[in-house]
Amino acid sequence: MGRVKFESSGYDNQDQDNGARCRRREAKVVFVLGATATGKSKLAIALAERFNGEVINADKIQVHDGVPIITNKVTEEEQGGVPHHLLSVRHPDADFTAEEFRRGSNTYIEALVEGDGAAFRLAHDLLFVWVDAERELLEWYAALRVDEMVARGLVSEARAAFGGAGVDYNHGVRRAIGLPEMHAYLVAEHEGVAGEAELAAMLERAVREIKDNTFRLARTQAEKIRRLSTLDGWDVRRIDVTPCSRARPMALSATS
């Protein structure tokens, strides 16, 4: 998953051959990369605020409208007045072609930067910021994020989006982690075929599966970004947030 921030261009003076010539500075683009739950959205917004930029979403699920809790979209308040693009702009059931959004956020970014003979990379001044953390912290944050989503209303949101026993989770926003995992629980609840204790156990299993799949996604994303960092011409700056991230579990443990 990634966030793209465009900074407005300006002018530089540069000596060339026999004198100084004024040339237009290449448009600057900062790609904020990172596995889910690493805090890249907050960093992208902070950068945009600092440099008067805008944020372009590169998450293929968040492009769809609907289920903002399950897809973990930044709220209007969290956006802080920073213009955001490609958020909730497609119908929940709409699909992207392979050319529109290729197999995920980081693959899409690679296609944008390297496609067409690397024309985009050659035309822009690019910087890639990779927000990373140790694996056990990624797992902890993935679980914490799901717990926070449940507290914010994940179950109610999934219930409202439930399309019945025969719903297809291979299209549109229904592919989002958090919807397919809730299916068995919602079917049992809707059809009244399970008692209260059984429903509670089914919900617990669903939440556990959401956590497992979220962490699995985080690992896959980190592996893709690590590969991108080895490509020629990619100025990838890795930021290890492990030290500051460890402070949060310690603080939560101290107050629990």
Automatic annotation (TrEMBL):
One of its GO terms (biological process) is cytokinin biosynthetic process. Keywords: ATP-binding, Cytokinin biosynthesis, Nucleotide-binding, Transferase. It holds the Pfam family IPPT. The keyword Zinc-finger does not apply. InterPro entries: Dimethylallyltransferase, P-loop_NTPase. One of its GO terms (molecular function) is ATP binding. Belongs to the IPP transferase family. This is Adenylate isopentenyltransferase 5, chloroplastic. It comes from Zea mays (Maize). The lineage of its organism: Eukaryota, Viridiplantae, Streptophyta, Embryophyta, Tracheophyta.
